[in-house]
Amino acid sequence: QVQLVESGGGLVQPGGSLRLSCAASGIRFSLYGMGWYRQAPGKQRELVATISSGGTTNYVDFVKGRFTISRDNAKKTVYLQMNSLNPEDTAVYYCKAERTLIGNQLNYWGQGTQVTVSA
After folding, report:
1. What is the distance between the alpha carbons of residues 11 and 87, in angstroms, rounded to a whole number?
2. How far is C-alpha 110 from the chain's CA centre?
């Protein structure tokens, strides 16, 4: 059974920092690309950052220079370090594991963790 469990969300003041974690089980973690997405109230889910199985990272423009994605294959965990948070970063943050295997796309999602940026 595949499980992705996010943690580390919470309430933080503008300008503050949080580190999200996503612990995976039931998959060969090192073979999966991992991503962080977020969904704000009334908005569609959007990509935040990705890290490939080889460690290549990509970020959307609105988090470049503020957020850092990383992974620890030994711990089967992906992280999202978020600095300089602002109220627009308020959302539920989800992690995703993805892999293409014999032409089939395998995607798994976590349940999400709430991040609220407010004074």
Report:
1. 11
2. 9
